[in-house]
UniProtKB/TrEMBL annotation:
<dbReference type="InterPro" id="IPR052371">
    <property type="entry name" value="BFD-associated_ferredoxin"/>
</dbReference>
<keyword id="KW-0479">Metal-binding</keyword>
<keyword id="KW-0249">Electron transport</keyword>
<feature type="domain" description="BFD-like [2Fe-2S]-binding">
    <location>
        <begin position="2"/>
        <end position="50"/>
    </location>
</feature>
<keyword id="KW-0001">2Fe-2S</keyword>
<keyword id="KW-0813">Transport</keyword>
<dbReference type="GO" id="GO:0046872">
    <property type="term" value="F:metal ion binding"/>
</dbReference>
<keyword id="KW-0411">Iron-sulfur</keyword>
<protein>
    <recommendedName>
        <fullName>Bacterioferritin-associated ferredoxin</fullName>
    </recommendedName>
</protein>
<dbReference type="InterPro" id="IPR007419">
    <property type="entry name" value="BFD-like_2Fe2S-bd_dom"/>
</dbReference>
<keyword id="KW-0408">Iron</keyword>
<dbReference type="GO" id="GO:0051537">
    <property type="term" value="F:2 iron, 2 sulfur cluster binding"/>
</dbReference>
<dbReference type="InterPro" id="IPR041854">
    <property type="entry name" value="BFD-like_2Fe2S-bd_dom_sf"/>
</dbReference>
<comment type="similarity">
    <text>Belongs to the Bfd family.</text>
</comment>
<dbReference type="Pfam" id="PF04324">
    <property type="entry name" value="Fer2_BFD"/>
</dbReference>
Length: 67
């Protein structure tokens, strides 16, 4: 699904940017260009950022608990 129509960037590309270390909307824009034009997709990027980073941290804490 496209989240940034200006740059034609999908939610998968945004999640990949977060997985590779992007922690702000600006960093996502730098990684995959989503949000680097009109900014209309920023709320969606922020939501994906929150979802993807909380998924990653809950996986991390599960891994820590299992260790
Ligand atoms: S819709 Fe993403 S920058 Fe315009």
């Amino acid at each position: 699904m496209y989240v940034c129509s200006c740059r034609g960037v999908t939610d998968r590309a945004v999640k990949a940017a977060v997985a590779s270390g992007a922690r702000t909307v600006e960093e996502i824009a730098r990684e995959c260009r989503a949000g680097s034009r009109c900014g209309g997709c920023w709320p969606v990027l922020a939501e994906l950022l929150e979802q993807t980073s909380s998924d990653a941290s809950s996986r991390h804490s599960e891994a820590s608990a299992a260790a």
